[in-house]
Fold these 4 entries.
Entry 1:
Amino acid sequence: MKQRSLILLGLLMGQSQHGYQINEFIERNLNTITDMKKPTAYATLDKLNASGYIDIHHEQEGNRPPRKVYSINDKGRKLFLELLIENLSDFENYQYKGDIGLMFIDYLPDNQCIEALTARYEKNKKTLELYLNMPTHAMQRGVNLAIEHKIVMLKTEVQFLKDTIDKLKSNDI
């Protein structure tokens, strides 16, 4: 819940928003950082409200049904800063699902290993290209740092896969 709370509180640091705005932003801009879905976002917002970290007021526009507008309060700002410091200073032990396959690679013939790893290589390379072509964010350096981190990680993965495929092709493993 800490990461989800950090995301939601961080989005509310800039301005009060209704749930639709928050979820649209997450889907459009943060899908590479979080897999948080709408029901989870709303449940987390409700928990943050129940714990006194955010306030909710209702807004009515025209004939539309009233909608909840979420705002961070002083207690929420304090929690946000605590979670932010904890997140930035925390060690992360990455567990790549693909490493499981690498552990058992000896059970496949080399040609199938090469084919599977080449498919993985191409997917990573395509994702890397997307990140490399993202425009820089003029207002917030944090967005640029998150994208730069993804690029570095993907470049490393792409290089590892290329080297591994080359080794398999030359029977050097």
Entry 2:
Amino acid sequence: MSLIRSAGILMYRFQEGVLQVLLGHPGGPYFQYSTFLTIPKGQRNVDEDLLDTALRETAEESGIVVPPGLCKHALAHQVNAHKVVTVWYANFFAEPVSPSPSTFKMEWPKDSGTIVEFPELDTVGWYNMPDAKQLIFPGQRAFLLNLERLLEAENGKEA
């Protein structure tokens, strides 16, 4: 079985000197009671460039169009046994659309024959880094830690 390839953009900003990142809560019934958050991202189309995937999926899930020139420092990380996610970082501020403008359809309740449409992300917002580290899916926490290391290196501090 080959690994699923996904890509996204972790947007960050400094609000009154405090580092914040943009995360969303997955939509749909399976995450209804989950408190975990995710980076706006999604699966690559066949033969699609991963940065193109990241730009497309971020726009679909957050409603924010990130200029490609702001995307830097890609990190690929295997988030679970079946998926590798590549994330770019962008110091970019915009207000997200919540819920996500992008939706998916699934049969719900299961085996009911009823097809229901759900937002890909039911909320999207800016989170301070300590909160983000606690709320993000554990497999994605490496992206937050890497962002901190990159920002420390840019500021001339040792990681």
Entry 3:
Amino acid sequence: MRGIEYVQLVASLPALGPILAAKTAPINRVRLRARLRGMLRPEHLAEIQAAADILAWPHQAVRTTDADFVRHARRVVPTLKSEALRRLVHDQLEQRTVLAALRRRHAGQDAPSAGEIWGYGRYVDPYPRKLARTGFRSRQSLKWLLPAKDKLDHEDAAGLERMLLEAAWRRAERIVGAHDFDFEAVALYVVRWDLLDRWTRYDAEVAAARFGALVADALNAVPVILKTDADLMGAVA
């Protein structure tokens, strides 16, 4: 029976728990990938990889233009056979499109020109009209938009990233409730694992950046002669 095809695989995956309380992922990337390769059908593994590649958009920004990525997403998303996975990827890309529009307005940039390929989904065409007038506030699915604008206005990059990860996590949690041991349960686990991994790594990166800033401040507070001595000792070492 298809609905319980992956009982053994799902049962072997450690619970992810609430994202807000996560300090580290309960299974590392290498072990998770090995388990998926060993227990998923090849076509299911390929579908998860295709979805994961699209959801890695922020990491692909240095390798491709927005237009190239959007063209790729428009080709790939309709080919995903899982309705739940296709819906989740679609919603995630729409969230990023609205955020891109919000960042564009925050930076004082003009609306995209006619025919410009800049985003994905139903919020692309109405950008100039709706964003200027309401900021999409009328849509229940975009209730995160005003808090996101507030984070942007206060230059709170860390807070904005955490808020968006939370929103994506809640979206995946709503869908996963309808699946237990089927392919969708596995795919949604992988999506949520990636969100949780990004959450915990982002905390670590922010902490490291703050530590670096504290060290820099401390060095700036040291008398010049002491810093010179320290530089000399470093050169000798």
Entry 4:
Amino acid sequence: MVRGALAILFGLFCLLFPPAAIVGLATLFGIWLIIDGVTALGVGWASRKQQNSWLLVLEGILGLVAGFLSIVWPQITALVLVFFVGWWAIVTGALEVWGAIRLREQITGEFWMALAGVISILFGVYVILFPGAGILSVLWLIAVFSIAFGVSLIALGWRLRGINERHQGQFAPGGSNP
């Protein structure tokens, strides 16, 4: 239930304070990149006698640089992430349309797969053409997800609490044991 409450608070923070939430998310992403970079460097250094260990060292260095830049310039990081989401949506949408065309002789309802692909492409183009709105859209999606996730966890917590109380009463001294 505590995780649920924190998720709801995080979602509300994202909705009520978008600029701070964007900077915060980009900064957290940067911290994660630094931790991942240090880990990759450590593993690469520890396995330096093995073939291709230099790839892990390179990955670690790139992670450290990207993490540092994400912390120093969180707005640019957010913008890059939005462009990444936009291009991802365009590529996956194109693959869905292509898949629907290829599968039209083997399945029925391929129209819906193609439509999903077109919607994905349109979303990607929108995000790339209007990155500011794209950043807010992604932030709102994260916020709505976080709030819904939090409500679900709280509901689960209440349900598990009720089950626990029933079982404790059932097996308690003086209770009605089966």
